[in-house]
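Notebook, bench 3.
Goal today: get a predicted structure for Carboxypeptidase regulatory-like domain-containing protein from Pseudobacteriovorax antillogorgiicola so we can plan the truncation constructs. The sequence was checked against the plasmid map this morning, with no discrepancies at the termini. Length recorded as 652 residues. Pasting the sequence as submitted so the record is complete.
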Amino acid sequence: MQPATNMILVLGIFFMANLAHSQDSQDLFVAQTPLEIPYRNLDKPVSQLLSQELQAVETFFGVPVLRGQPVNLKSPEPAPETPSDEAPLKELTIAGLGSSAKLPFGQDVSGTLFVRDPDVVAWNDETHELESKSYGNSEVYIVAENQMTIVKVEVKDNEANPASDLAVDVQSSALKNILSQSGKPLSQLSVPYDTKGIAPSLRDSDSEIVIDAGNELGVEVVRKEQESLYKNIAIQVVDERSKPEEKEIYPVEGVSVQLVGSDFRARTNARGLVEIADVPAGGRFMVRLKDQSGRVLDQVIEVATEPNRDSELFRVRALSFRSYFLYSSVFGVAQRSNLASLCLRAMTPDGLSTLAGVRAEINVGADGPYYFNEFGPDGNEESGAEDGRMCFFNVDPGLVEVSFFDGEDYLSAVTIPLVAGNHLEDDIYLANGQKVDSHLVAMPSAVQAMYGGRELRNQFLPVDYTEMIAVGDNDDVNYHGPGVLRFEPGHTFYRGRLYGLVQGAEFETSLYSFDPVIHGKASSFSQVAPLLQRGFIEDLFNELYLQDSAPSIAFDPSLGSVFVRHGAQAGENLDQLSIRLVNHLGQDVQDPWFFGSTDSGFIKAVFFNLQPGIYTLIVESSRNHWVDATTIPVDYWLTTVTQTGAPLVPKR
């Protein structure tokens, strides 16, 4: 007999022996990968239903877990067979992340255990418990004695959900390449999906099912009643030597200060001050500094006003040419005119002291960082000195992210808008952010928004979850319950603003801004984020150009878009308002496309095919008075969504 024939005979005998033994005993398997197990009584041994690529590792209820070739094990006690055609169903709720719970029946369980979504719950072989990993729903399947038992598991937040009747304001580079904190692309991340209250069972009805937008998620939103407020502000220009926390101010006199997008220009006085009257309270705009005598570098910086009638002082740091030439010589760099430059001081959250020894990294092309010692710039330093100062030169303009470290320990990150051909000098208060909740709703489709009836075009649809990233820290915004995402405290706000990037498969890749300072919320903040269904911008473009007699222009999805919603404030006539989008020089970029009607108290507009950059969006009255303003970052393959005027609030 040939050796191959001998081997086949031996394997055949071994297989038959195993098969005979498996029919005399009951098998216990813990499956680690999804298996298609039928929802019915089994008519064949469990071992024949399992993958043939299992291996035995660890234990389950004291019995080895099987991940390889089936191993026949005797169960402690056979369980009585359930004479039913449907799998028994049990329910289990786990409160909070990192919590655990035992299965809802005794420890004498034998069979095959499989967790459908291990990203929501996972089995711990040592404690014999299920552990929660993320919010959402999953199932645990156990097959024993020719019977499957299904355990439905729900992981809930152990805190109460945010009140749905809270007044919520809406305010609105390499963003497209951002990965989650886990390092996996967003398309590979698990998505918590809570169907409770919004997904009717097919067993309950044999007729058409219509899901009402006004459900328990608390996503019905209305326009908040508010009046437009104006205030007086003062801007003080100081040079880079200034230390306000130590009451040392070096004012710069004679610098031209321009409110970008307006005709206002003024020169600073001996104290470095310029006063501006009747600025929209709760607005955000760009201030441009220019010194004709060449003492300081040109600069464009954001200013955000709080929504009250009190006057405000904004201190703006400027870099002197004297220091710039010194830095260029010591660091050996030459600044190019088409790029930006950036110098920062890392500060404590309260801004009362600097952070010594902090180093920084930037996410775009740049020279640096360069640091300083007690005597000035030092090309050999690898981290900031006592004053926490650092500089970057030849920085790619746009919305840039600067991350801060203490040695190898990550501290925080900040997102800063930079304008080409300009310098930015500023103080960064690390980890100064409070808790921020984002309530998710979806806009109707473009066709419905344009041609639907009043209710249809103004409705908001419920959204349980979508993927959002906190720009800067680049970690996933936490799922806090149905329709709510939460930015946990500890993010770094730049001049009162934080950005969230939506990259859900069903929605447009969109950038949202969160402005607690503008809306006067000190400890916590909530806002509604109106999501755009994927294809909304392109469909809207096509519909608007069908209505217009202008020459046909192709829609370019690689360029940026801006979607604007302005809510009418007390006494405003929406039909007499205009919307402008200007660049950092104050030049109008293009006219907006308006759509829909104003019968709901909103006007909606959109800008297409925009080049990347930092813009200012201005809402004006018929007399060219500013009603509101906000800054708009635009990037490739991105839609920036913003709202001005009266904010959206959940319906009480």
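The longest helix spans residues 3-24. The radius of gyration is 31 Å.
Flagging this for group meeting.
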